[in-house]
Every structure is written in C-alpha cells, then in structure tokens.
Design brief:
There is one protein chain. The chain is mostly helical and 93 residues long. The protein is elongated. It is built from three helices and no strands. The protein has helices at 2-13, 34-51, 62-89.
Length: 93
C-alpha cells in the first residue's frame, strides 16, 4: 500500500517515480498504443481502488485521490481517441 500511496503523491507533481503510472498526457499521443494506455489505466484503477476506502480514515488522502481520478479520466479519453483512430485506420497490427 505504501508504494501505491507514493505513486499517488507523485501524481500531483506530474512526475511519478518510474514509468508505471507516468501520466499519458505528457507523452506524444502518436507514440502510445491502445494496449499501453489500457495497462496504465488498469494500474491507476488499482491505485484508486486502494485509496478510495481509506478516505474516511485519512481525509488528507483526498488530493491524491483527486489526482488519480484526473489521471483515470485523461487515460480513458486517450483510450477512446486511440480506439477511434484504430477503427478509422483498419486496426493495423
């Protein structure tokens, strides 16, 4: 849990340690494929699911939870954009 909390705290700064949860918005969209975005979304969702139940006990986690929520929203939009492009381009392998 501490590792997940560290990731959440770094999300506020926009520079999480390592590449595991690096926000997709700072990357060139042309370099990101849908699978990579989905993997990042799943890792961020695990983080959200671990933080959300702790909010009642520790309200100071709210900024981290909001940062993760914003990241999830951003990734979801980018997944939709990539999927739309893949449909338009005929799902090139």
């Amino acid at each position: 849990m501490d590792k997940l909390l560290r990731y959440a705290r770094h999300l506020k700064k926009g520079d999480p340690p390592g590449d595991d949860l690096r926000p997709a918005r700072i990357l060139n969209p042309a370099e990101i494929d849908t699978l990579e975005l989905k993997q990042r979304y799943n890792r961020a969702l695990v983080l959200f699911n671990n933080l959300e139940p702790r909010i009642n006990d520790d309200p100071e986690l709210l900024p981290e939870l909001l940062g993760v929520t914003a990241l999830l929203n951003d990734l979801l939009h980018k997944i939709g954009d990539c999927t739309t492009d893949e449909i338009r381009n005929g799902f090139k392998p």
